[in-house]
Design a protein that fits this description.
heterotrimer; A: mainly alpha; MetI-like fold; globular; B: alpha+beta; Rossmann fold; OB fold (Dihydrolipoamide Acetyltransferase, E2P); 2 domains; six-stranded mixed β-sheet; 19 strands; Sugar ABC transporter permease (chain A); BP-dep_ABC_trans_perm (chain A)
Amino acid sequence: MKLRWGFIDVLVVLYALIPVLWIVSLSFKDPSTITDGSLLPTKWTLNNYTGIFRNDDFIRGLINSIGIGLIATFVAMVFGTMAAYAIARLTFPGKRLLIGFSLLIAMFPQISLVTPLFQIERTLGLFNTWPGLILPYITFALPLTIYTLSAFFKEIPTELERAATMDGATPFQAFWKVIVPLAVPGMVTTAILAFIFCWNDFLFAISLTSSSAARTAPATISFFTGSSQFEDPTGSIAAAAVVITIPIVIFVLFFQRRIVAGLTSGAVKG
Amino acid sequence: MAEIVLDGVSKRFPDGTTAVHDINLTIADREFVILVGPSGCGKSTTLNMIAGLEEITSGELRIDGERVNERAPRDRDIAMVFQSYALYPHMTVRENMAFPLTLAKMPKPEIAAKVHHTADLLDLTPLLDRKPANLSGGQRQRVAMGRAIVRDPKAFLMDEPLSNLDAKLRVQMRTSISRLQKRLGTTTVYVTHDQTEAMTLGDRIVIMQSGVVQQVGTPQDLYDHPANQFVAGFIGSPSMNFLPAEVHPDGLHTIIGTIPCGSRPRLLPREVIVGIRPELFQDTRIRHGASFTGTVDIVESMGAEKLAYFTFESGATFTGEVVARLDPKSPVREGELATIWYDPAALHIFDPTSGANLT
Amino acid sequence: MIGEGGRGERRLALWLCAPATIVMIAVTGWPILYSFLLSLRRADLRFPEDQEWIGLANYATVLGNAYWWTAFGVTLLITVVSVVIELVLGMLVAVAMYRTVVGRGLVRTVVLIPYGIVTVAAAYGWKYAWTPGTGWLANLLPEGTAPLTQQGPSIAIIILAEVWKTTPFMALLLMTGLALVPEELLRAASMDGANRWQRFTKIVLPLMKPAILVALLFRTLDAFRIFDNIYVLTNGAQNTSSVSIIAYHNLIGGLNLGIGSTMSVLILISVAIIAFVFIRVFGAAAPGSEPR
């Protein structure tokens, strides 16, 4: 029995790794061998990487991705923490409505927002700007942060806050000195999940931008062409794909246990 | 040190349920008062109202003569020990105990001195740098006590502080809490659902049921003169035997036979409940007063005593069980007949509808 | 005051929830309404002069259009097939991760990689893998086949890319459900004579039903809005457009706001119906709803 699970485990690992291996290998292939179709490079080169880092549009895309992602994550975390704390700890009318509403947004087909947002942002002058992407990102990251954080907050016993209150803490001190230190692991996890969401987005990024002013890295890649700089974009696209993937994969591997907890807490425990 | 007065205190929740109804209670300075009752009786809500963790719907709460209804918990100078201990998991024992003093902005050297003094008192000194996760249940309990004591507050509130400990440790901690309270002389309100804890710890006991105080008194008082059937059944272990009885001129007709009771029947309603404590029964040493004979169902030998269970059937509809707490040397055996004696003057008679003690 | 619903508490809650609620309403509520209004107008950015209220004419146009229905069919096909495969595969992976003792950490970590990869990046990987000449997978096929130039194989590859990326997420959700099945129940079932398969179907699956339904609900709605993979792999060529792709092309390529909005509203309605079916018919607990 052990052996059979072991066999499945090996399959699972191959399943997860081979496609990744392929794109990494592609990114190291020399242009002359890029169409040889072999799984591993026969002739190695770093040119694809040096090439994309000499490409201003790609650099700009990375900066946009990082900046927009960090700002959206930060705002979503602040607002999400506030709302999640209220949901986890307070009773108030409209609580179920708020939970239901954010659930609605979590399941919302983003494309349905793209058309009206395209028009609204053009009117307001937000089209092709950072805020124009940050706003929808905050919105779609909020349900995630609210769910995950309220699940984490609910795991912290209420008696701790009561004890702090009895020990002479103001409500804010109770929150800041007792709840926040205990919620830090959960908050880190949630922030990572929110950032991954922003980083990963493609639909808003290509619909609500028109130049490298706000276009994020994944969108920039889709505009790579085999023009003057790049004869054949395959190697560059592969290298760029690896570059934008690496930070996330590192995050995920580093915080593996917590991310699993975060991904599943909102969904299963409610 | 403080006197705590609850003057007609009630708690109603927004959904309309009444958790606590019109409590009037004066807890004297240095007194150890126990709030006891089954779960949901309102004892914890009462404690939380004294703490300031829950709002008082109506009535007045006074500490040392001052109305404190509107004061936040931190302005009442009361410490609390929680059932789960509520130790801050991210702080060491030392930091946990120092936390209330830090919040009160006490100078650091003074905090250190107080923490050390309290740690000494509770044998916590070797544990000061550990985190709560690395402590045993009993140690955590002591840290929770220490965090309350270190502030030297006007009063301690304890919410079932021993219920998470195993049986042996609970008995041990019970005596040490009692000793500590006597030594510190701090007014203490203690909530428990365990009548043994209530009887052994308190100067006075407040018995509650469904949000209403049933009786207030010393442990002996409650045992000897229960105000009603609920108190009678709650205090004492095993519980008092309750037997429905019809009142006749010759005595009370019950499933264990007719209990003579002199001239009392004239004053009683037609039907009553007779209450006899299991320890009132005797089968060897004393053989006078009234008696009944029945088949012994089960015998539980406890070492220091024997519990004998009898089942009576009367007609087709009614069965009743009687427990007798007997001398360990009693010859009763399961499945055999035994004759049990008791003093009919020592039993209690309750009104079957109101539960009031008519004795 | 904690957990009492007093006035102070309500006010605090209101302040705490206000920013999140306002952002969410501002960025979704108003655009949805706007989208609905636009869908009732002739609004083509190429002819800005020619705008007027035309009632449900846009809906008639979209619903009478063969491309829309093809896209709708393709979307449904991709959704159903990929979710079913993900459920089976995800369950297998979940059980494997749950039962593995040796190298458990490695498997649980590695399986997260597809989740972490940017969808677009992975999609390019699949695209090149199936491109004749370039791709190692395409080279395994008979000479001269270009799978991404035919409808059937393209859809199969889209499903493959989708399944690869999202199965780990499914597996994680299912594994959490597995962990909620008490080990003692399984032992009791073995004592009662249940074999391995019976224990799985009679004990584990029924107890996991809530977790499975939530995972299915999440994934179904997510698959229904599929965009990134198709955009990169075929960009909707050979009738492989999903509803999201076709709506996008109407907006960005066609600049037809009226038609684009109509499609947006129709997609929203479809998603609402799917969610309704899951929650009402299958009894999936809406995630986040509190058990009463």
